[in-house]
Amino acid sequence: MNSYPFGSGRPDPNSFPNRGLADAAMRILPELGGELALYPGPRGYEPMRKLMSDRFERREGGGLPVDQISLTTGSMQSVTLMAQYFVEKPGDTIIMEEFSYSGTIGAYKKEGAELIGVPLDEDGMRMDALEEAISSATARGKKPKFIYALVTYQNPTGSIMPLDRRKELLDIAHKHDIPVVEDHCYADTVYEDCHVPSLITIDHEATVLHIESLSKILGPGVREGYFSGPEPIFSEILALRRDGGPSTLNAAICYEFFREGLVDHLASINGIVKEKRDLMFKKLGEHPDAFEWFSRPKGGLFIWVKLPDATDVITCEQAAESRGIDYATGKAFHVYHDDVPYLRLAFGYATLDQIEEGIPLLAECVLEHQG
To answer: Measured between alpha carbons, how far is 306 from 357 in angstroms, rounded to an integer?
Structure first.
């Protein structure tokens, strides 16, 4: 049976630089000397942190202090560290978009947090709803510990929060003295010119912690990410690490590979994935009865799709699985785990042929399972 892998957010597998990373390892390993016999410390390999700071400055127009960057085992370690630091007891509240990354939802629930979902529109988290959520939680003695937000290529919706709303988000956070955790893990997956400054670069008194990842431009198996933030919170979060620090070997090989090739690598992989995104747009548009609306993200790895309200989402998913179609249900991304008539399609990993064949098959599944 053919397979159609639209479920997980992974980059194109054929773009993984096997030879380039092997060559980078051969160049860097002799230079490491005895460094691999040492624990790396909580911040990690300094040349990689410097490279990430330079990369951030080129993209955002402002740098991150190298000593306030900590490499992590993928961005998920950063995401989890935030909850471990801020959540003091079961039932402490965290505010996030009503639809958000399923991994973060699961991680924060495991830390014992109560999650409060804020409705979104086409520009991301709604500020009127954010104010209401903060006031309501505070009135019942549960002032939110922090606001978690994906303001750039939001997962799953793909939205980009405009600059004015980003400033309003920071205004609200500062007024209520609530830190903001900005998950910026899709920042380098760009297919159209649409840059908006990240929250941490906006001149403001609000407390912002910033998370990034290499998984979306290299591969999740590499497990490289980082976070940054102001002191003293940054050092206090570092004190929670129990892993001896991030891998020097991983970081050194990635550093050597990206040291001179980052720009070319991004141009190559984004060009490949853009072609897949565009084809998926086309195929979804050919079946308006099944896919009533879908997002048109300018970056990231996902398309958010609205199904007819009468769709039996459970039997539809079962039918899709029987035909080899893997996708993520809307329920997985809903903070309250409701059965909503949405699904998320990932376009980075599948081949063009799989997209060409799989989307019409998925449309059949949707139309066959109307209540």
So the answer is: 20
